[in-house]
Design a protein that fits this description.
With 164 residues, the protein is mainly α. The protein has one domain. It has helices spanning 3-9, 15-43, 58-72, 75-101, 104-130, 133-163.
Length: 164
């Protein structure tokens, strides 16, 4: 009996099964974040003046703007910002899980996906603070890159699971 078969019989998921769940979960969370972002795009008008708006220091402006958006911002924007922050933390956790369980390809896709999520978050904060449309476009492009990374990770894990 193979190790994968023995692990399934004992009720433990195999490494490819864990990687598949991680990547599919990341895709689902990214879809939720996308829908929250669309709600913000359609229903929210961000005020020109808020903490962090037009900040001279980018990183302190990001912290101020993000804090304001989550605690006092419009509801959809607060949900989008808070979920994005949680998504970034989870993406970093995904790197640790794939590091222990996966191959170089799995680690590479999770690292690139996490970097894309973090980059999208910083561009979202830039849009919040400086109201430049290109920041929103970059955020959308990085979202697509993150989604592609996690889809690729899911496909790879599914192929490994089928081969086991």
């Amino acid at each position: 009996m193979t190790r994968a078969g023995a692990a399934r019989r004992r009720g433990r998921a195999t490494t490819p099964a864990r990687l598949l769940r991680i990547n599919v979960g990341a895709c689902a969370l990214l879809l939720i974040q996308y829908l929250l972002g669309m709600a913000v795009n359609i229903y929210v008008v961000l005020p020109a003046r808020h903490p962090g708006a037009n900040a001279g220091n980018y990183f302190s402006g990001v912290a101020s703007g993000l804090g304001w958006a989550i605690s006092s911002g419009p509801g959809w924007a607060a949900a989008h910002a808070a979920f994005g922050l949680a998504l970034a933390v989870l993406a970093l956790g995904t790197i640790a899980l794939t590091w222990r369980q996966g191959s170089r390809a799995a680690v590479a896709t999770s690292v690139l996906g996490a970097l894309a999520i973090v980059g999208a978050g910083f561009n979202g904060a830039s849009f919040l603070n400086y109201n430049q449309a290109f920041s929103s476009m970059i955020m959308a492009g990085l979202w697509a890159l993150a989604m592609a990374c996690y889809i690729a990770g899911a496909i790879r894990a599914a192929r490994l699971l089928i081969a086991a």
